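Dear support,

I submitted the protein below through the web form. The confirmation email said the job was done, but the results page showed an empty box. After a refresh the structure appeared. I'm attaching both so you can tell me whether what I see now is the final result or a partial one.
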Amino acid sequence: MATKQTRAWQRMLSGRRLDLLDPTPVDIEIEDIAHGLAFVARWNGQTKGDFAYSVAEHSLLVEEIFGRLNPKARTSERLTALLHDAPEYVIGDMISPVKAAVGPDYEELDKRLTAAIHIRFGLPATVPVRLKKQIKKADRISAWMEAVEIAGFTREEADKLFGAPDLDLISDLHIRLRPPVDTRNDFTARHAALLRDMP
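What the results page shows now:
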């Protein structure tokens, strides 16, 4: 008796059918990514305010911080920073302890989706180690800001978990909580602006 095959694809609002086991660049649309990320909550939703802090909002902040840390960064590198959590439009945002519990399968799925997304938008399938470290630094600064401003952490706790940031670098930046549609539109617009500037 044949066993029933488990469905491993998701239909997107664009109409695309994304195969999670074998994602292809032709099934990736920025509108799907922006919409999904705008509705995925960071911190498992355990944040202050009337709106969840979304992965799309986080991604916009990380790209801004990355640009400040690396003022000579190429446009393609800034686009890579904006898309650093893009696979989460499909697989959600798992906090680090859950990722550790799930194990290497999550990481493999993330890698496959990242490669397809990057190829779709003219980026290398694999992020160079140097660039990955630079984006991670911006990511940790964003996480520190989120922890202190909306997730109930003291500065001391955030310093231990994410490292103390250069406060002058982020003195004019703040966590924004707003309707998902606003974040979705800003994410899509920023993506379009970066694509226009790419050689």
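Response: this is the final, complete result; the empty box was a page-load delay. The longest strand covers residues 9-11.
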